[in-house]
Design a protein that fits this description.
The protein is an alpha/beta fold. The chain has eleven helices and 15 strands. It folds into two domains: 247 residues, Alpha-Beta Barrel (TIM Barrel), CATH 3.20.20.70; 68 residues, no CATH class. The strands form three sheets. Strands 1-2-3-4-5-6-7-14 form an eight-stranded parallel beta barrel, surrounded by six helices. Strands 8-9-10 form a three-stranded antiparallel beta sheet. Strands 11-12 form a two-stranded antiparallel sheet. A hairpin with a 2-residue loop joins β8 and β9. The longest helix has 22 residues. It is globular.
């Protein structure tokens, strides 16, 4: 494309997580334009026990969302098992039958199957597909008819803006939530410790592989037998994932060798993201509590409304201290970062 025309700015949709029917209800009450959810199986990338939806819950959630003019997006964002792809095919059929407004898909075989058997269904390209340039996204559009692409959290703001100018489909970006240091959709790190791939099983730290060893000097967290952290008495501890463990590297003291537990927070970038022409802002956290969903959604609803009003010439946008204070309660390690959006060391 020569001299591409940037898309006209639009008020971005707020897409929020729902790991349970209660979380879905609270997200709608707090102002989400759409919620995303998954089934109780390995077809979604948050396949934790006690989370996700059965058919009756999906049907109820869709009915409640549609009654309020909102949408439900079904995450079928793991990669099908080469030995048996039928669970992913059934999940596509269930999602369509239950009235999901769109499917969030990573696997090209699942995309192809959904388009062939359900040509009317709206398809979104999952962040798990790891499409980081406009050529890849345009390929998915031309070959599988995707109508939105979720960008991985590895691009700078300038790279996002360049991609959008050349992209044939609307783009969704993450605004808040836990970060993944690996290139989404390609992580194999926890597979070495647990024997289960997060790209097919749906969890990077399956509960069956997690062990907490308590002693007088604190708690040791292990994943698949591998010691990944030691928490002193009274020290806050998070769910153990290998990329956010503390390790001894060479002669260095134990520290976060790969990634610190901290949350993405792009409130300060909202005006630039809107001006870039993004279609939607996504909140991470289907594994988090309904209270997390309610409070984070409420903050982001207020922020998007304020940023859009400022874009339309009604006042000025600024990040309110109360917003940051509320989000800090739910951030990993109570720390915020712009992640890859801002790389001052370049």
């Amino acid at each position: 494309m020569n001299n591409p025309t940037p898309p006209a700015p639009r008020k971005p949709q707020l897409v929020c997580p729902a790991g349970s029917l209660r979380a879905l209800q609270l997200a709608l009450q707090a102002g989400a334009d759409a919620v995303y959810l998954g089934l109780k199986d390995a077809t979604n990338a948050r396949n934790f026990a006690g989370l996700n939806f059965d058919a009756a819950q999906v049907r109820e959630g869709v009915a409640q969302a549609h009654a309020q003019g909102r949408k439900v997006l079904m995450a079928l964002n793991t990669f099908g098992d080469a030995r048996d792809r039928s669970p992913w095919q059934r999940a596509v059929d269930h999602a369509v039958e239950l009235g999901a407004d769109a499917l969030i898909v990573a696997d090209i075989a699942v995309l192809a199957d959904a388009r062939r058997r359900h040509p009317q269904v709206r398809l979104h390209l999952s962040v798990q597909a790891s499409a980081t340039n406009y050529e890849a996204i345009n390929f998915y559009r031309q070959r599988y008819g995707i109508e939105r692409a979720v960008l991985p959290r590895v691009l700078t703001l300038q790279q996002v803006q360049h991609l959008i100018r050349h992209c044939e489909v609307p783009v969704e970006v993450f605004g808040f939530g836990s970060l993944c240091v690996m290139v989404e959709g390609r992580c194999a790190l926890s597979s070495y410790a647990t024997g289960q791939s997060p790209n097919t099983a749906g969890v990077c730290s399956p509960p069956s592989a997690v062990r907490w060893d308590e002693a007088a000097d604190g708690v040791r967290a292990r994943l698949g037998g591998v010691l990944i952290d030691h928490y002193r008495p009274g020290e806050p501890r998070g769910y153990p994932t290998l990329c956010k463990g503390r390790f001894e590297v060479g002669s260095l003291a134990s520290d976060y060798a790969l990634e610190e537990p901290t949350s993405l927070n792009t409130l300060s970038l909202l005006p630039q993201l809107i001006e870039s022409g993004i279609d939607a802002i996504k909140i991470e956290g289907r594994q988090r509590s309904p209270s997390y969903v309610a409070e984070v959604t409420k903050v982001w609803r207020s922020a998007i409304d304020a940023a859009w009003s400022a874009h339309c010439g009604q006042g000025r946008y600024s990040v309110q201290p109360a917003w940051d204070g509320q989000l800090a309660r739910w951030a990993e390690g109570q720390q915020h970062t712009l992640g890859a959006y801002d790389r001052p060391w370049r």
